[in-house]
Amino acid sequence: MSSYKKKSLYIYLIFFIFIIFFYLIINKYQNEKKIASEPISINLLTSVHPNLTWNFESVKKNILVKPGEVVTIEYHVENIGNIDSTGIATFAYFPNQFSNYINKINCFCYDAQTLKPSEKNKFILVLMIDPMVTKDSKTKDIKEATLQFTFFDYKEYKKSKQKG
């Protein structure tokens, strides 16, 4: 084989490798962009500690949230007891590693809420899922998560925190 043919073969080979390399880079970028725009299904669970005579529920049981999107979630609460009572909400995320990427912009959690007998109220949660959730190897494949709020009797909650 002549040196001209060898050089031409090397040039074609290098050109072919570059084309494959650029194709792979573009494909990876498009896949990452697609993953970032796919919504995550969030299950909204609510519960009330037995010492608190309240009903508490989310208006929707499940929502779809795209990373980077700001969403407002509405909850309804009612004091079904016959005395004024004060509750405080705590929350948990499942899977746990997902919690690093949920930003609560406005939340009723950790604020004592007092309701009179038969009083109803509406609580709002505004949150955003950080788009970086799609880049973390521990969270990038999460397509479904759970957000759970539990209301506790404020006096009991305060006592337990002072003991602990």
Kindly give the count of domains.
2
Write the H/E string, N to C: HEEEEEEEEEH
Total number of helical segments? 2
Q: Tell how many strands the DSSP assignment holds.
A: 9
Write the layout of secondary structure elements.
Layout: H1 3-37, E1 40-48, E2 54-58, E3 62-65, E4 70-79, E5 85-94, E6 102-106, E7 113-115, E8 120-129, E9 144-153, H2 154-163
Parallel strand pairs: 1-9
Antiparallel strand pairs: 1-3, 2-4, 4-8, 5-7, 5-9, 6-8
Structural notes for this entry:
There is one protein chain. The chain has 164 residues and is of the alpha+beta class. The chain has two domains: 37 residues; 125 residues, Ctag/Cox11 (Pfam 04442). It is built from two helices and nine strands; from the N terminus they run H-E-E-E-E-E-E-E-E-E-H. The chain has a five-stranded mixed β-sheet with strand order 3-1-9-5-7. A four-stranded antiparallel β-sheet has the order 2-4-8-6, with no helix packed on it. It is rod-shaped.
Task: Give a concise summary.
The chain has 164 residues and is of the alpha+beta class.
